[in-house]
Write a structure and sequence with these properties.
globular; alpha/beta; 12 strands; single chain; five-stranded mixed β-sheet
């Protein structure tokens, strides 16, 4: 069994069983990958992939188990490389982050700008996706960090550290009837069509909970994953917008009015997650602390020692998170 063979089966599984696409991504030949997979299957005495002719059709039950272990081995290999890099050149390497549009657009620019100035020889890679996709990328080692509000609690292999709390605002065009309301209520909002996030994005669950508690159904007429898209359709008159408060930029959004809605919805917490057992390089600790100053190296190392969500919650029980 060769490490290269484990890499091949892992990459094939993560390229939708497309050997040709895998070969292109690894800069090697399709026949070479197919041969090595067959050799590995012959050695193990089981099929990792089912086939129809020359095409791979699905991962077998045995293959699922083998791939889980292969993924762990490949992550350990990557950790070994990172340990070596830390000691050979602590200011050079790479950092990959998966996050949502809201975090990438409104929460991370200053942090990333400062980080790049401080570590010009670290290549930074950002992946955007749904909270579920983001969490999966961190859980399977595709990225170093996931930054999101939803979904990460579904992955037990992730250590999730709270970064900050945030709430929502209601966006309306100027002269909208809601601008005359002294303090918004859920009932006020329920009278109008709503443009907001897709379910599962950026704390959307808190919005739905608030309406449900009042026995109301929101008139959601349009959803998007991108706050800028939501604002565009509010400006077109499609409905009132409900977005993260940080997504309202007074200078850029001067034709909209932001109405405070923090008293209507429970706040959401954005977290940074990484796989348990990950070797964090010095610049990774610094990135986390720059994003969330209370997450110092000592606190992060203590979090590594906690083995359950309850233990992690206890660690941060007395921490006053910033609110945005």
């Amino acid at each position: 069994m060769k490490l290269q063979q484990l890499r091949y089966i892992w990459e094939v599984a993560h390229h939708d069983l497309n050997v040709s696409a895998t070969a292109q991504s690894l800069y090697t030949s399709q026949p070479g990958i197919s041969k090595q997979i067959r050799l590995l299957e012959d050695e193990l005495g089981v099929e990792i992939f089912s086939r129809s002719g020359k095409h791979l059709t699905r991962i077998t039950p045995a293959g699922e188990a083998i791939l889980r272990t292969a993924g762990e081995i490949l992550r350990k290999v990557e950790s070994i490389k990172q340990v070596a890099q830390e000691f050979s050149n602590e200011r050079k390497g790479s950092l990959s982050i998966a996050t949502t549009h809201t975090q990438a657009r409104y929460a991370l620019p200053r942090v990333i700008g400062d980080f790049i100035k401080r570590y010009p020889d670290v290549s930074l890679h950002m992946h955007q996706g749904t909270p579920m996709q983001i969490s999966e990328m961190a859980a399977d080692g595709t990225v170093d960090f996931a930054i999101a509000t939803e979904a990460m609690e579904l992955f037990s292999d992730l250590i999730m550290l709270p970064c900050y709390r945030w709430n929502r605002c209601v966006l309306v065009p100027k002269n909208h009837p809601l601008t005359q309301v002294s303090q918004l209520t859920i009932e006020d909002i329920a009278k109008f069509p709503i443009v907001t996030y897709v379910f599962g994005f950026t704390g959307r669950s808190k919005l739905d909970e608030a309406f449900l508690e009042r026995g109301l159904a929101p008139k959601v007429v349009f959803t998007a994953a991108d706050a800028d898209v939501i604002k565009t359709y509010v400006k077109l008159g499609l409905g009132i917008g409900i977005v993260a408060k940080m997504a309202f930029q007074p200078e850029e959004d001067s034709d909209l009015v932001a109405l405070d809605a923090s008293h209507l919805f429970r706040s959401s917490t954005t977290k940074i997650g990484f796989r348990r057992g990950t070797f964090l390089r010095g610049f990774m600790y610094e990135f986390i602390e720059e994003f969330a100053p209370h997450l110092t190296k000592d606190v992060i190392n203590e979090a590594f020692k906690r083995h359950s969500k309850m233990e992690l919650d206890e660690l941060f029980a007395d921490v006053e998170l910033p609110v945005y």
